[in-house]
Amino acid sequence: MANRHRGEIEAMLDGKLYRMCLTLGALAELEDAFGADDMVALARRFEEGRMRSRDAMKIIGAGLRGGGSELGDEAVSSMQAEGGASGYVDIVARLLRATFSAAGAVDADTSTNAAEASEHSGPFPGTT
Asked: Is 98 within 8 Å of 23 (Cβ atoms)?
């Protein structure tokens, strides 16, 4: 089961449930892949709301590897998501939201609750 407090999600690909997470290593991988100087530049790239299919493949691949899978981008490129293209977009949006939004970082030790956190805009499309 995915731990949302650690930025994990679960996603169905090729009929198999995978745990995904954009760990620090996965984020570094994405910085390199997208030519971003830092995490802020990476966040700004995603904030624009434009996503190429190659971008989605790299994000999903990094999330799978961050979640413990050893699948390379070549293997990811041939995987099927439920819902087709919209399924890939949903996986990417949920993964980015879990990684970067305040709601994804809610912790029992803070006074912030999920409802309060969700009222604040996140840096990515689909985050509230």
From this structure: no
Q: Which residues, in sequence order, are CB contacts of 123 under 8 Å at separation 6+?
A: 43, 44, 46, 47, 100, 101
Calculate the alpha carbon distances from 17 to 39, 49, 99, 126 in Å. Answer: 28, 26, 19, 23
Helix axes 85-100, 39-47, angle to 10 degrees: 140
What is the three-class DSSP state of 13?
strand
- What was the pLDDT predicted at 117? 37
Encode pLDDT of 46-84 as tens digits.
888 788 999 999 999 999 999 999 999 999 999 999 999
pLDDT at 17 over 80: yes
* Beta carbons of 69 and 18 less than 8 angstroms apart: yes
Average pLDDT on 31-56 reads 89
Q: What is the pTM of this model?
A: 0.77
| 49 token code pair | 């709301």
d(CA 108, CA 32): 34
Distance between CA atoms of residues 66 and 113, nearest Å:
26
